[in-house]
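Severity: low
Component: inverse-folding endpoint
Summary: output formatting inconsistent between runs
Steps to reproduce: submit the following structure tokens with default settings.
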């Protein structure tokens, strides 16, 4: 049997494409991965252009697909944190070459970057946060 090393079977990609092609999905996965765990409000702040409904719906899809986990804490006020599952972490690792390519492409094309507000962090940068008690 002869295997063509230039050809890749795309059969298994369909389900994955349906998930990661959703608007904001790659950014949510990357952002949570950059921070380890995040609360809903932190995601909303980091992704200032997304609506709360869109984010809530997307988090449900990503959780249902096993890419993120949602942990609720029985506190007042209630606290919920999101983190990547093992599959979500593997997907994030697989996306890093694509994100690096996009960054190189933007730099090469001299595409101006949007100015940042004071205190904001590029989604690709690790944010140093205070420990929660």
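Observed output (run 2 of 3):
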């Amino acid at each position: 049997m002869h295997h063509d090393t230039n050809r890749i079977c795309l059969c298994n990609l369909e389900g994955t494409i349906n998930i990661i092609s959703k608007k904001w999905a790659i950014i949510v996965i990357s952002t949570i991965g950059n921070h380890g765990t995040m609360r809903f409000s932190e995601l909303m702040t980091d992704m200032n252009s997304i609506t709360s409904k869109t984010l809530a719906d997307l988090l449900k899809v990503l959780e249902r697909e096993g890419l993120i986990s949602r942990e609720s804490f029985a506190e007042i006020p209630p606290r919920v944190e999101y983190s990547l599952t093992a599959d979500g972490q593997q997907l994030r690792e697989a996306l890093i070459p694509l994100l690096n390519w996009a960054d190189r492409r933007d730099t090469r094309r001299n595409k101006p970057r949007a100015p940042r507000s004071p205190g904001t962090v590029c989604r690709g940068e690790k944010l140093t946060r205070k420990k929660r008690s």
